[in-house]
Amino acid sequence: MRFMTTSDTPENATAGIASQDWAHASADPQYRAAVVDLLGALAYGELAAFERLAEDAKLAPSLEDKAELAKMASAEFHHFERLRDRLTEIGEEPTHAMEPFVAALDGFHKQTAPSDWLEGLVKAYVGDSIASDFYREVAVRLDSDTRALVLAVLDDTGHAGFAVDRVRSAIDADPRVGGRLALWARRLMGEALSQSQRVVADRDALSTMLVGGVADGFDLAEVGKMFSRITEAHTKRMAALGLAA
Fold first, then answer.
1. What is the spatial distance between Cα 243 and Cα 212, in angstroms, rounded to a whole number?
2. Which whole number is the average pLDDT over 116-136?
3. Cα atoms in the 13 Å half-sphere on the side-chain side of 5
4. Does this model's pTM top 0.85?
5. DSSP 155
6. Considering only CA atoms, which of 194, 201, 177 is closest in space to residue 231?
7. pLDDT (mean) for 214-240
8. Where is the Ferritin-like domain (predicted)?
9. How far from 79 is each of 21, 51, 138, 139, CA to CA, in Å?
10. 198: buried, middle or exposed (CB in 10 Å: 19+, 13-18, 0-12)?
11. Are 122 and 183 in contact (CB under 8 A)?
């Protein structure tokens, strides 16, 4: 099976892969490499999310909030385990698959360390949602087996509703909080998109799959459209938080 030639259209290539299972789709080495990249990035993202939520729990103002974050952290670790096990199942070493994404994700978290409980909630809500949007864009181009796994680990752990409730309550209690958190969310959006674009640009197999495959690697215009859709979804989530985008 071939992955793509320049005479193919992105739509036809995407439909071809999406209609296959892993056993058939993985016969193409470029596609296999892209999926290993994707699962590696997702796995490290879930592991980092587990660590972050466990750390954020220390900032929780109540025992109830602390327990809720611990529950979410547990769900993130379960997602990590599923991805780790899948990498092993297809003959890949999980640590090796995750390694290329450690610097970018760690860099993002280092540059966006929250200073308080509310900033931590907004970061988790905004950052996780942007990442989920990105991976859902990729998921439509995947084989049926990989797509099902990716969508399963992107399931909401409950953090979205929890964050919206707590942030809106804080703004109701002190409207001045809204301005500070809006600025924080804008910074998070910029940092998250910057890191995502670097990952796409640096991983040839993943970027080629993401835009349907083109002769010179990837179509920057198509990537731009994808990030525009992600930005639009972010604006809607900001409104749900009661913040200006």
1. 35
2. 87
3. 3
4. no
5. S
6. 194
7. 74
8. 29-213
9. 21, 13, 18, 16
10. middle
11. no
Q: Encode pLDDT of 34-64 as tens digits.
A: 999 999 999 999 999 899 888 888 889 999 9
The first and second tokens of residue 230, run together, are 């992600």
pLDDT over threshold 60, residue 205: yes
The residue type of 15 is: A
- Give the Cα separation of 57 and 147 in Å (integer): 31
Q: How many residues does the chain have?
A: 245
Find out whether 57 and 63 touch, Cβ atoms under 8 Å: no
How far lies 37's CA from each of 32, 34, 70, 103, in Å? 9, 5, 28, 14
Partnered with residue 217 across adjacent β-strands are: 214
Return the higher-pLDDT residue of 83 and 221.
Answer: 83
DSSP string covering 75-141: HHHHHHHHHHHHHHHTT--HHHHHGGGHHHHHHHHHHT--SSHHHHHHHHHHHHHHHHHHHHHHHTT
Residue 219 · residue 211 · CB < 8 Å: yes
Report pLDDT for 191: 87
Residue 72 is given by DSSP the state: H
